[in-house]
Amino acid sequence: MCVALAPVQLGLLLWLGRRRNGRLSLRGVVGYLDKPMPRGKLVAIVAALIAQMVVLSFALIPVDNFIYQWLFTWVPFEGAGSVTGYFTGYSRTAVIVSLASCIPLTGLAFPVIEELYFRGFLMPRLSWLGRWTPLVNAALFSLYHFWAPWGVLSRVVFMLPGVWLVWRKKDLRLSIGMHPGTTLLTSTGGVIALLLNLVPF
Hints:
Layout: H1 5-21, H2 39-59, H3 61-71, H4 92-122, H5 133-144, H6 152-169, H7 173-195
Helix pairs in contact: 1-4, 2-6, 2-7, 4-7, 5-6, 6-7
């Protein structure tokens, strides 16, 4: 993600902004910034979106596992509900330090870049699809996570409400609050759970 996501997605947006504005700027490149909703309403909607995203993502774990078992058993995978399966053989301290050091990137920076690209840049350019725009955008975002194809359907389901609201309200801050807010909450919560021995290791 450090090698591809940040340089490619953010780099493209900054390059387009420099071409358009003569300086490093996202003005005119990233959309849905011109009609901001009141701050109180924004915070309330983002909190509700984070709650629904967390609940739906956990509720859909059995769907991910079913799709994996049905189509993708040839891919080594511990299961959608596995938290520490990838870290077998490493010390508890090494795992906690590794996960904690990733929080600023995978919990915050990368999701913000993804939202700038997928919702701020790509979605306005799909507006010719009319009402299908949010669904197509959510599907493209889900397919972009090609390393976990068994999660495509569930990712569309739990991302779609936020994507639809950004499209409807024309306010990118909704998904910037929802997506990084959720990943920050779950990644930080996961590290805390490991620290407190709430997750088997």
